[in-house]
Amino acid sequence: MRIAMIGTGYVGLVSGACFADFGHQVTCVDKDAEKIAALKRGEIPIFEPGLDTLVATNVKAKRLDFTTDLSAPVAEADAVFIAVGTPSRRGDGHADLSYVYAAAREIASALSGFTVVVNKSTVPVGTGDEVERVLRETNPQADVEVASNPEFLREGAAIRDFKFPDRIVIGTSDERARKVMAEIYRPLSLNQGPLMFTARRTAELIKYAANAFLATKITFINEIADLAEELGADVQEVARGIGLDNRIGSKFLHAGPGFGGSCFPKDTRALLKTAQDRAVPLRVVEAVIAANDIRKRAMARKVAAAFAGSLRGKTIAVLGLTFKPNTDDMREAPSIPLITALHDMGASVRAFDPAGMEQAKELIPNVVFCDGPYSCAEGADGLVIVTEWEQFRALDLERIKQQMACPILIDLRNIYAGEDMAAHGFLYLGIGRPDRAGPKRL
Ligand SMILES: NC(=O)c1ccc[n+]([C@@H]2O[C@H](COP(=O)([O-])OP(=O)(O)OC[C@H]3O[C@@H](n4cnc5c(N)ncnc54)[C@H](O)[C@@H]3O)[C@@H](O)[C@H]2O)c1
Is the CB of 132 under 6 A from ligand 1? Predict the structure, then answer.
């Protein structure tokens, strides 16, 4: 199959490279000329484990190429995927669909022969209808069908998720479109990837419902963590105790500083907006958004609690800035409101992240960016682990302690055990865990 992928970001580049790896002929298109020039030089503009090799292999095999001009690849394509951004619209929280519709208008004029235009971007229910209207209005002669194929990959594990998906959701009622989509994903049947065909609007809603549900799970365990702290219980054991129940499942039950990233915050907001427009109450999602927003700043109060409530004049070292490990994505990362709140409380902040520092420098002012965890800890009164990068899981604690002015560690991801930290002479605070070396001993 010939595929044109419009938008070469986290989703477009990973999907394009994986489709090429299945044996399809893929052209990735992006408006960002710098991004395309970098890709043509063999440079990967984002950090995603394994993506450099996958791209290089498929470029070498001549199954994958890059361009800023969509006309030729769209004309030749059996399927054109729209994988452009759908950020929160400024001011009201609806999904901003301007990039999707702009892409649809450009695609329309270039169509030739039967083509399936596939929305891979996360879009509110009814966007497929509007994309179809735009295509037919701009090019009434076009032989085109519009399908929905939401993407569920996770940054940091994107290639594995794409190649071994729990499910592939395809929304179309058209038989020809169904055949094209089945052919595109056929190589995945070897990996037992289950294809689910459904109506387009249903497919669009599945994506939002999935993200809202996962965000709810995270927020639920975060609130239980707060309660566990008050009651002297251990949230990690609570999570294990409930997660072993198959009806609940163990994933997304890790208490932490609140969810961030490029999807959950904007998608929960957009789902709520869609529901409000239809006068349908989504009280659970509403509560999840509110609880999560409050939580990120509240983490600064947790840090302050380790200093008897006052951070004025203190130096705080922050390890991990990206919204999760193995990505350089800083979109809506909890580190941003946390560091702002630390500044507001009068602290100075030093920080280190293995992949996100370049993006972070643009977003968080007045931070001393360091080149490693040990230099970051230098002279710090407290160290806060915000993102659970692998390299923070086995720090040389003696070395960290020697660097710090005061050995206080606040672990917002619970990657260390309180007893071990106490044995190393640290005053240690985790999330939702009993007070083994906690605040009352400080
Ligand atoms: N990032 C994720 O983990 C993830 C996971 C699942 C779904 N999604 C969804 O996928 C979509 C894309 O997300 P992303 O993180 O890859 O976004 P991104 O911002 O990383 O990439 C979008 C790309 O589209 C390009 N673009 C915009 N308009 C264009 C046009 N008219 N023609 C060509 N290129 C254009 C931009 O230059 C950019 O490179 C969003 O709807 C998102 O919600 C993202």
Answer: no
Give Cβ neighbours of residue 421 (< 8 Å, ≥ 6 apart): 397, 409, 411, 428, 437
- The rounded Å distance from CA 49 to ligand 1 centre is 18
Task: Kindly state the tokens that stand for 116.
Answer: 């399936």
Helix (H) / strand (E) element for 420: namely helix 418-423
Helices (H), 329-394: 335-344, 357-363, 373-377
pTM strictly above 0.85? yes
Q: Quick check: 193 pLDDT over 90? A: no
* Tokens linked to 400: 């960290």
User: Token pair 């605070």 is at which residue?
Assistant: 429
145 closest CA partner among 77, 84, 209: 77
Place of tokens 């293995």: 354
CA-closest candidate to residue 348, choices 319, 375, 379: 379
Residue 258 has pLDDT above 80, yes or no: yes
In the set 28, 263, 370, 376, the catalytic residue is: 263
Residue among 5, 6, 10, 80 to mutate when testing ligand 1 (max atoms within 8 A of CB): 10
DSSP-based three-state secondary structure for 294: helix
Distance separating alpha carbons of residues 373 and 413, to the nearest angstrom: 16
Nearest CA to ligand 1 atom 30: 103
In the residue annotation, 18 being an active-site residue is answered as no
Give the residue carrying structure tokens 């030739």: 112
Q: What is the pLDDT of residues 296-350, one digit of tens each?
A: 999 999 999 999 999 999 999 999 999 999 999 999 999 999 999 999 999 999 9
Q: Is 86 in the pocket of ligand 1 (CB under 6 A)?
A: yes
**Within a 10 A sphere around the Cβ of 16, how many other Cβ atoms?**
31
Helices (H), 306-412: 335-344, 357-363, 373-377, 397-403
Q: Which residues contact 250 (CB under 8 A, 6 or more apart)?
A: 239, 240, 243, 244
From ligand 1's centre to the CA of 275, what distance in Å? 24
- Alpha-helical regions (H) of 232-263: 235-243
